[in-house]
């Protein structure tokens, strides 16, 4: 299995509180990996270590290695702007910029020096098509992104992340605030995206993890209890705590 990230003995503290404990896992390329576990177990904390979003939190201390294609992303020489271009993130609540649909998508490429109108037009269309929203917005690209529905805003945020051509897309409970139809569209989209991208997603929804992920990582109290193919985890979990969580007996 071709890997894209290799996490070695990762520990994280918020002040005196240790939130991640000795995480060791290899994440596969061009697959969907679901991070599951109860609230407060460390899965979103872990996700945010993968593109150094934790740098923005005061008092965080991190030990261990997070290797992306062999590069330790916490090495002082790593350019965080470059890193977040390669490893994009979409959050639980859609957060479009208060500007037009077009400018939301063009924002990242412009930041990285692309100015030509023809090239930007091409990127905007490609990104919106990749996020399965082009047909819904192509006639109102100059309208405010804030006028879109919640599900459309979330797909716009995915398109915005794709516009800078990342390797990895991190989704932090990106469907939890959406209706079932919008959720279904984003699940279908995630499955399509893994042909070109690696998707790592946090979800509380066991059915969603079972439907669309290739691998699952079960977190509990800051520890990675189990990592395996989704099929194996849901059919024959190796740890009784994993089984209790998946079957709803978790207390």
Question: How would you characterize this protein structure?
Answer:
The structure is a single chain. This protein has helices at residues 43-49, 80-86, 101-111, 117-130, 134-137, 150-162, 180-193, 206-212, 230-235, 240-246; strands spanning 3-14, 17-28, 32-36, 60-68, 71-72, 87-90, 168-172, 198-202, 215-220, 223-229. Helix 7 (180-193) links the parallel strand 7 and strand 8 (198-202). The model has no long low-confidence stretch (mean pLDDT 94). 36% of the residues lie in helices and 27% in strands. The relative contact order is 0.18. The strands form two sheets. It has a six-stranded mixed beta sheet with strand order 6-7-8-3-9-10, with helices on both faces. Strands 2-1-4-5 form a four-stranded antiparallel beta sheet, covered by helices on one side. It contains ten helices and ten strands. The protein is an alpha/beta fold and 251 residues long.
